[in-house]
């Protein structure tokens, strides 16, 4: 009997493996066909962008095919009208991680892409799009592209995550580390109660390495560093800016008064102490004697003046039309301040029992770190 050769067996086994790998490589085929038909939106479509509406545009195209019958992935590319997509302005995979033959982009997304294309706010411009199909390392550009016209709104393509006010005419001065923050009241909308004096006033976004500056020009919010104070003497203002439509509102806060419902008048004016805070200390409180008992209801009267110089009165009170008397354990939301109707008794707060014929400290907080609110401390 012949002896079995282990070295020979090992050699045959390795040769078989290599032959199998060669066979697999021969059978591997990553060939795909390109997308040949873009379906939507139609060529030369016009879209007037309205980001706050949450409207969207759906991009659709026909399928590409893989030679081995497996799945193909898609990437949508955007470029300027004369671009060749070699360095697209923006690209993203389609739905379901690139497997769907459609992509839905909101007007907000398209507004940002239009901004990348150099289309200015409140202006029209053209954008070109196409689709790449891919499998593995194989990428096939579509055989066509389409151009669409976009009209951007007056607002900015991207609003800051946080906004600050700085400059020689502000409470924080020119040191950026002392810039005073705005309150974010909704998407792209910011508000601040602050004192302004003569000098430079600008708004800054510090979320990137280099701060982006904005300024208020009348009722417009503009990008740049040209901002100056609306006043030559120190005054208190509410500034409200909306990046969605590049709008601004400047309102002077002439006074804030403690308004007593039963007396139907302001009992005392609360002085401004800085950075959105009004405070008065050791002010006497005495509930009003009615035939049925002693009335303890109060709220706050803001006297405001708009940019045209017209004064108005706005009551700030409770979110509830009627309230129980406050106690030392009353939850904080009880004291939240919201603008309300011109109603003598409704939406008032009630001093706690211990405040009657005593002195109190009252603080009105129109600050960015939480809901607008107030605090009453009985001495």
UniProtKB/TrEMBL annotation:
Keyword Signal: yes
Keyword Signal found: yes
Keywords, sorted A to Z: Plasmid, Signal
Database matches in InterPro entries: SusE
Annotated signal peptide: 1-19
Pfam families in the cross-refs: SusE
Residue ranges constituting the SusE outer membrane protein domain according to the UniProt record: 24-132
Protein name, UniProt field: SusE domain-containing protein
Biological source species: Hymenobacter volaticus
Lineage, top ranks: Bacteria, Pseudomonadati, Bacteroidota, Cytophagia, Cytophagales
């Amino acid at each position: 009997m012949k002896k079995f050769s282990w070295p020979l067996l090992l050699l045959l086994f390795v040769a078989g493996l290599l032959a199998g790998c060669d066979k697999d490589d021969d059978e591997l085929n990553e060939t795909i066909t390109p997308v040949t038909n873009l379906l939507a939106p139609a060529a030369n479509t016009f879209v007037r962008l309205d980001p706050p509406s949450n409207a969207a545009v759906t991009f659709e195209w026909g399928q590409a095919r893989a030679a081995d019958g497996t799945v193909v992935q898609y990437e949508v590319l955007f470029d300027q009208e004369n671009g060749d997509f070699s360095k697209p302005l923006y690209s993203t995979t389609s739905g379901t991680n690139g497997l769907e033959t459609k992509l839905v982009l909101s007007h907000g997304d398209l507004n940002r892409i239009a901004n990348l294309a150099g289309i200015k706010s409140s202006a029209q411009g053209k954008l070109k799009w196409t689709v790449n199909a891919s499998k593995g390392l194989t990428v096939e550009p579509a055989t066509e592209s389409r151009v669409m016209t976009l009209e951007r709104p007056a607002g900015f393509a991207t609003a800051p995550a946080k906004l600050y006010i700085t400059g020689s005419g502000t409470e924080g001065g020119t040191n950026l580390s002392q810039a005073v923050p705005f309150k974010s009241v909704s998407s792209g909308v910011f508000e601040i109660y602050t004192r302004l004096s003569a000098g430079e006033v600008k708004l800054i976004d510090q979320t990137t390495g280099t701060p982006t500056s904005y300024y208020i020009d009348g009722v417009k919010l503009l990008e740049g560093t040209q901002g100056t104070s609306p006043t030559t003497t120190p005054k208190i203002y509410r500034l409200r800016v909306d990046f969605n439509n590049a709008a601004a509102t400047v309102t002077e806060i002439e006074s804030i008064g403690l308004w007593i419902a039963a007396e139907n008048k302001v009992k005392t004016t609360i002085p401004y102490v800085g950075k959105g805070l009004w405070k008065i200390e050791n002010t006497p409180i005495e509930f009003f004697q009615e035939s049925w008992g002693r009335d303890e209801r109060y709220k706050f009267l803001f006297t405001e003046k708009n940019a045209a110089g017209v004064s108005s009165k706005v009551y700030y009170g409770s979110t509830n039309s009627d309230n129980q008397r406050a106690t030392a354990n009353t939850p904080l939301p009880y004291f939240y301040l919201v603008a309300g109707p011109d109603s003598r008794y409704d939406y008032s707060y009630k001093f706690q029992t211990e405040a009657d014929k005593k002195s109190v400290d009252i603080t009105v907080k129109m600050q960015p770190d939480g809901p607008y609110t107030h605090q009453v401390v009985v001495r």
